[in-house]
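For concreteness, we quote verbatim a single protein encoded this way:
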Amino acid sequence: MAIIVSCLSQKGGVTKTTMARLLAHAYASAGWRVKICDFDLKQKTATEWGARRMENGRKPEIEVQGFAGVPQALSQAAHYDMLVCDGRGFADTLTLELAQASHAIFLPSGLANDDLAPTVRLAHELKKAGVPARKLAVVLARTGDSAREIDDARDYISQAGYKVLSRTLSERQGYRLAHDAGRSAGEATHFTLRIAAKNLADEMAEHITENTKDEA
């Protein structure tokens, strides 16, 4: 039965799909059977990326499929080692359903209060609805060069009572170009960007392992 991982957000534009693609590529590269479940049927960002990846013959192959509901996606679990669920660009009942079905949940956020506050609100809402806080991990993304700004954002999340990963993902042209070509951030052409993305993927994997080790 597949491990279920979700990338969720209260708003769009916080690299939710970037994280889903990065994670799927990391596990697929390790030989896992991985499928990305795209729940944003209007934007179809992950689905269209999957099509570009296939057209360009990228390896490893990563299957991407759109789903309107959580039960339909979970019906695929027996055929894969991991389902990476890319939620909608807003929080709704489907967001809660995904969170409740997931072994681990990533909440990407930018550094501005406009991103941080909605992220914390979503974490509070999920926790109030019965989702264990230990499953949640905030990922800081679209970061710049200010270590102080990153530290302030990390403190904001920590003081709210939630885990925030130590690795971040910066805003770089190289990542955008990779996505345009059907690659993940972990397949960026520039070595430094590729390593930074790999380090983040490794830390995300550690969070997943922490939340699934009792089921192994």
In short: The domain at 3-215 is CATH 3.40.50.300 (Rossmann fold).
